[in-house]
Amino acid sequence: MKILVDADACPVVNIVEMIAEKYNIQVTLLCDTKHVLASERCEVVVVGAGTDAVDYKLISICHKGDIVVSQDYGVAAMALGKGAYAIHQSGKWYTNENIDQMLMERHLNKKARMGSHKNHIKGPKKRTEEDNERFAQSFERMICVALKNDENRIKDK
Predict the structure, then answer these.
(1) What confidence tens digit (pLDDT) does each residue in 38-79 have?
(2) CA 42 to chain centre
């Protein structure tokens, strides 16, 4: 198992690094050439700046049982399709039960914006310490579930 982070403008990279280190899990941060990162704890993969290049690279190296951190519902849907776990920077888990609804809402919201000629929307609220704590707790729970499922998979072989 490894953790893959869609790290372009991701506010939880430090939290992911810290918790992954606690469980001794490899983390790969993926970013494009406009968001170059450096990390002493993680592998950093810099991908060309093409549209969705980071997303495609992330999914190409994602495997069953990995954990994906992304705010992109499309990336989450593809990760789930590969048998990976996926979590939003808010701490919300993407699941096979909720991803279709989330993708539909994203589509309808985009359609509404295009229909009203308002293509620019306000950005997210300023991130709080409570947001970080909520993500950390949810992320750690996901790691525990993934580790337990991985252990059970190994026993069944």
Answers:
(1) 888 899 999 987 889 999 999 999 999 999 999 998 999 999
(2) 15
d(CA 86, CA 3): 10
Torsion from C-alpha of 72, 76, 79, 84, nearest 10 degrees: 130
Burial readout 9-30 (b: 16 or more C-beta within 10 A, e: otherwise): ebebbebbbebbeeeebebbbb
Q: Is 62 exposed, middle or buried (0-12, 13-18, 19+ CB in 10 A)?
A: buried
Q: How far is CA 143 from the centre of its chain?
A: 13
Positive or negative torsion for Cα 66, 43, 31, 7 = positive
Assess contact for 11 and 89: CB atoms under 8 A: yes
Residue the block writes with tokens 């990995």: 66
* pTM of the entire predicted model: 0.86
DSSP string across 102-122: HHHHHHHHHHHHHHTT-----
Q: Where are the alpha helices (DSSP H) in the chain?
A: 13-23, 53-61, 73-81, 99-115, 129-156
How far apart CA 43 and CA 60 sit, in angstroms, is: 16
**Residue 92: which of 64, 73, 109 has the closest Cα?**
73
User: How far is residue 25's CA from residue 9's CA, in Å, rounded to a whole number?
Assistant: 22
